[in-house]
Amino acid sequence: PGPCQYYSTQTTRLEQQNATLNALVYLDSNPPASVHTRSLLNDLKLAVKDNICTRSMPTTCSSMMLREFQPPFDATVVKLLRDGGASIIGKTNCDEFGMGSLNVHSVHGPVVNPYIPPFSRGKPFCQEQRSAGGSSGGSAAAVAAHMCDESALGTDTGGSVRLPASYCGIVGFKPSYGLISRWGVVSYADSLDCVGILTRKIRDVMRVFELASVYDPKDPTAARPATRTRAFEACKSYLPQFTSTLTGLRIGVPQEYFPAELQPSALSPIRTVLEALKSRGASIIPVSLPSTPYALSAYYVISSAEASSNLARYDGVEYGLRIDLAPDADKTKTANVYAHTRTRGFGKEVQKRILLGTYALSADAFENYFLQAQRVRKLIRADFDRVFCVPNVLTTASTSAVDGVHVLLHPSAIRTAPPLPNDKDSHQEATPDGLDDYVQDVLNVPASLAAFPWVWRQKDEWPMGVSVVGQWGCDEMVLKVGEIIESLQ
Ligand code: GLN
After folding, report:
1. Known catalytic residue: 49?
2. Catalytic residues (predicted)?
3. What would the pLDDT profile of 123-171 be if each residue is shown by its tens digit?
4. Which of 92, 93, 160, when mutated, tests ligand 1's pocket best, judged by the most ligand atoms within 8 Å of its CB?
5. How close is the Cα of 178 to the center of ligand 1, in Å?
6. Does the C-beta of 99 come closer than 6 Å to ligand 1?
7. CA–CA distance from 98 to each of 2, 91, 207, 328, 489 (Å)?
8. Above 0.90 for ipTM, yes or no?
9. What is the pLDDT of residues 284-317, one digit of tens each?
10. CB burial string 341-379: b at 16+ within 10 A, e below
C-alpha cells in the first residue's frame, strides 16, 4: 500500500479527509437545517449508509446498478431523525448491497481504516492501509475520523455494523430485529436486515435509538407496539438495580466463541473486561451454545437465497441501470437486456451470492440447503433462549433459564482489521474465493439469526471489540451493560 495522501489546502476539511479514507460517497457540505418539532438530536450531523434511501441525495448501494438512483423519499428512519433535529451530511461507502466484510466490494473503491495505532502516531506516513471492515465501513470510518458529529447509520445483516465498529475502534449497535423500521432500506436479506447505529459513545447510541425505534406500519416486519412493551417490561423486571457494585449481574461467556481462527491478541480485551466486571461483583458464567459451528453456513445459505430473490427486481426495465442491445440485436429476446444489464450492473461478489442463492432455492437443493439452514436457525434461537434469564417474547413456548444470564460477552471479531489489498482497483477480486471474508463473520452471524450485540474497544494497537448480546427486545439492558463496560476504560 502507498503512503496516506496529504491534504490539499484547496478543499474543505471533510473533502481532504475523504480523499484519504473514501468513507463518504456523497457529501452535502452545507446541509440545510432541519425543520423539526422535537430537538433531541440538536442539529446532529449524521452520515447515512448508501443503502438507506435519502431524498435529494443519491442512494447507490455502492453498485453500478444504482449509480444514478436518487430516491424521491426518505427512509422512515431518516425521516424520524431529520424530524428529531439531525441533518444528513452525506452518504457513506459500503460493500455492494451490503454484501461483504471488508468494504472492498464497492463501485466507489475500498474504505481505508482511519485508526492510527500508537506506534504509528506522529509519523509522516501511515505504515499500512487497513480495512475499515464491512459492509458499513464508510459509516464506521466517518465516525472514527470525526467526519460526522458523533453518529452514522449503517445496516447489519450478519455483522456489518459490529465488524467495522470493532476494526475502527468505535461503538456499533445492532438493535433487535424489527425495532427500527426497514422501510426505505434497500433489501439484502429481509429476515436478517437491521438498521444499526455507529457512534463513539454509548450515550449517543441511546439518543439516536430513542428517536429511531418507533413502530412503522409501512414495514411489515416491524415489531408491534404490544410486543415491544412486553419485551421491555420483561427485561426491566430482570435487570438488577446496580448501586456501587454489580452484584446480581450474570454474564455468560459462550465457549464456542473462541474458535481456532481467533487471533491470540483478540483475547486480551475480553479478559480485561471480564476481570474488571468480576472485581465489581458480577458473576461470570461459562455457557454453551452448541449450534454455533453451523451458524456461518446457515447464514450464507439464507442470506444468499433472500438476496437472489430481492435482487431480481434489477432487470433493466423499471429503474436502475439498463444496458441496451446493439441496434442489430433481436429485440424480442428481452432476456438479453436482462442478462447484459445484470452482468454489467452487479459486481462479482453480488453475482456469486445471486448464483448461490438461486441454487439453494432450486427444487433439487431446497430441502438439503434452504430448509436445512432454516432448521439450524431454529436451533440457534433455542440455544440463546436456553441461556438467557429473560424469556423470549417472540416465541410462545419460552424456555428461559431461572438461573440464566442477563447478557453474553464475547470477542467481536476473530482478528484486528486486516490490511487492504495492494491494488485499490482490484477490489472486486480482492479475495478470489471470498472465504476469507466469510470467516470474519463467524462470531457475529449467530446473533443475527437470533438476538443482538454491541461493541467495546481496546485502546492500544489495532482495536478489537467485545460484544454484548442480549435477549430479543432487551436493547436497553445491553446498552446499560455497555455503559458499565465503557466506564471501566
Ligand atoms: N459479511 C456479511 C455478508 O457479506 C454480513 C453483511 C451485512 O451484515 N450486511 O453477508
Report:
1. yes
2. 49 (charge relay system), 135 (charge relay system), 160 (acyl-ester intermediate)
3. 655 567 999 999 999 999 999 999 988 899 999 999 999 999 999 999 9
4. 160
5. 18
6. yes
7. 27, 14, 25, 37, 32
8. yes
9. 999 999 999 999 999 999 999 999 999 999 999 9
10. bbeebbbebbbbbbebbbbbbeeebeeebbebbeebbeb
